[in-house]
Amino acid sequence: MELEQQVAIVTGAASGIGRSIALTFAAEGASVLIADIDEAGAQETVRLIEAKGGHAAATRCDVSAPKDVQVALEQAQARFGTADILVNDAGLTTGMPFLEFTEELFDRILAVNLRGPFLFSQAFARALIAHGKGGRIVNIVSTAAEAARINAVGYCTSKAGLAHLTRVMALELGPYGITVNAVGPGMTMTQRIQQNETVSTAYQRAFLKEVTLGRPGQPQDIAQAVLFLASRHSAYVTGQVLYVDGGYTAGKLSVQG
Ligand SMILES: NC(=O)c1ccc[n+]([C@@H]2O[C@H](COP(=O)([O-])OP(=O)(O)OC[C@H]3O[C@@H](n4cnc5c(N)ncnc54)[C@H](O)[C@@H]3O)[C@@H](O)[C@H]2O)c1
User: Which of 97, 212, 222, 231 is deepest in the core (most CB within 10 A)?
Assistant: First the structure.
């Protein structure tokens, strides 16, 4: 098992990609704290992990609130001991044209997608350093960090910021033995995507035309990449963004034909 004796905190693991990451980590021997605003979903992830003999707990946490972040770290410590791995997966997206985008919406998306990982990573890194331990941070960005998209100014800006936050943190935390990397999913078939809650069917078709592997991603595709970056196999990798997108970003900045 890849993560035996490890303690991981996964934000946004009440559903979708985060749940798949939590299940994958637990199957590899990690004890997992699920930090999410969706308490029922978080409890369901715990149930799914425990049903397979794994160890998990849930805490209600809004990643944009410093107090909640502190409580989550304390919960992990109390239940399982000092955490070794942090995955910043919690994220929000809303489609709206730039000219109509409200200040409130922009602030909220930035607060969850960028301020949240900043706050969580800072508190997590401080705890690791206080315990004299190295660790791993993995941020979930998006192909939108690389390729701008219409009607998604908050999302694109937050994810591009998170990709660069990843690099800055990698530089500053490297001397403490903490690696910081990001995974950038392409279109990944979570329940919300399948039910067209976040992007339209037309958008999904257009996106897929540019995916050379010819299929959308599955949450498990993303979870395996996150597992690599959380495991000993990536000991010398830091400050990187790994796109797991079926080839979408490889051709994105050139004209095809
Ligand atoms: N599904 C995709 O196609 C796709 C593509 C690229 C990137 N991503 C990124 O992957 C991550 C997970 O997305 P998903 O598709 O699984 O979506 P999802 O909506 O299923 O999961 C997001 C989770 O974040 C939680 N969350 C939202 N706001 C929160 C807050 N303030 N504090 C704590 N938790 C909060 C939600 O309750 C939910 O459980 C996000 O960062 C998203 O931007 C997804």
Answer: 222
